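Inverse folding, one chain.
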């Protein structure tokens, strides 16, 4: 009697089934390990943040109290330490206020520029910069159009927008083919929107990069030297608070270009970058 095979029956290989289960188990184990590592990192980060918050709060209160009682030098030192340890637009803004009260125009404008670098939406910082430049008879820095675009949002936002738009676009182009999804019209629409976001953010990213070359002259009557030496001839004198753009460095000197297209060397201690402490 002949045995009959059922229609549509599949022939299974026990070894292949075992291998598939083994691979699936390894993937689950790896996924669980990643989750455990992520949870440990987040727990550690939370403990660090919780430990830092009280210290930052105490430093903030002490700096504010020193400013309120008129101890502007003490307040400036405390705000400077706080801004170095916990950089924020608020800390730099208050540091600029304290430095202005000390009649240190260059240091005040530098602090406010750093505050604006982190938070371009703060109207008080913009007002302080405008007032300080009017009092010191200084002009605002000349920015290219893409640098102006980069000031519309915080500097970190442009990187997130560009990377998010790029990977959304690439993902919706590649994933349907990889997972054999049926292509839909919204895939193409969202992918095009992602590429558009990336292209729109690209000029602003360039502006962030070039604006990072801007800095503020800290001291009044800073000599613009012909060569990077102490005995060099002074080509001009730069006022405190003037924004310049550095191009290259040599030892303890920076080659900078001022707004009137004057160029020369200044000491690195006479220059403060607006993008970093």
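Residues assigned per position:
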């Amino acid at each position: 009697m002949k045995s009959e095979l059922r229609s549509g029956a599949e022939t299974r290989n026990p070894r292949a089934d075992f291998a598939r289960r083994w691979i699936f188990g390894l993937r689950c184990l790896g996924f669980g390990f990643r989750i455990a590592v992520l949870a440990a990192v987040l727990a550690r980060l939370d403990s660090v943040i919780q430990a830092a918050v009280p210290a930052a709060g105490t430093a903030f209160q002490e700096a504010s109290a020193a400013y309120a009682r008129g101890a502007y030098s003490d307040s400036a030192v405390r705000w400077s330490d706080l801004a170095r340890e916990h950089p924020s637009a608020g800390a730099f803004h208050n540091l600029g206020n304290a430095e202005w009260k000390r009649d240190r125009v260059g240091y005040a404008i530098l602090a406010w520029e750093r505050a604006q670098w982190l938070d371009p939406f703060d109207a008080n910082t913009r007002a302080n910069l405008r007032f300080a430049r009017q009092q010191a008879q200084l002009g605002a820095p000349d920015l290219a159009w893409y640098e102006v675009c980069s000031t519309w949002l915080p500097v970190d936002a442009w990187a997130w927008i560009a990377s998010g738009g790029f990977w959304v676009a690439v993902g919706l182009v590649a994933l349907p083919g990889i997972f054999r999804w049926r292509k839909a019209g919204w895939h193409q629409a969202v992918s095009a929107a992602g590429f558009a976001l990336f292209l729109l953010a690209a000029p602003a990213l360039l502006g962030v990069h070039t604006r990072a070359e801007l800095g503020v002259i800290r001291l009044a009557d800073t000599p613009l030297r012909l060569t990077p030496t102490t005995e060099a001839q002074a080509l001009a004198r730069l006022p405190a608070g003037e924004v310049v753009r550095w191009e290259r460095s040599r030892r303890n000197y920076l080659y900078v270009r001022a707004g009137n297209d004057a160029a020369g060397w200044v000491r690195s201690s006479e220059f403060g970058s607006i993008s970093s402490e």
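Residues 147-211 form one domain. Confidence is low (pLDDT under 50) at residues 1-10, 45-55.
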